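Anyone up for a design puzzle?
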């Protein structure tokens, strides 16, 4: 599991936006890119080419679940 301290310093490598821990992934709060990064063996895989771009609907649901503003 990723510690709060590590989560506080990590950011999306593409946009430098904050990240939300969602299960075993990190999700960018940037609405335009909506990147999701995998966490494998407690190590975040922060490579843009290895990330997934979420649909707007899926991203909205994750942001709402974590109490983030989606506007």
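Challenge accepted. My sequence:
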């Amino acid at each position: 599991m990723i510690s709060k301290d590590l989560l506080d310093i990590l950011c999306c490598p593409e946009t430098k936006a904050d990240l939300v821990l969602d299960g075993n992934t990190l999700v960018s709060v940037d609405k335009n890119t909506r990147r999701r990064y995998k966490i494998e063996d407690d190590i975040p895989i922060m490579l843009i080419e290895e990330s997934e771009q979420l649909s707007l609907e899926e991203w909205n649901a994750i942001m709402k679940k974590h109490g983030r503003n989606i506007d």
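A detail worth pointing out: Residues 4-65 form a domain with the N-terminal domain of TfIIb fold (CATH 2.20.25.10).
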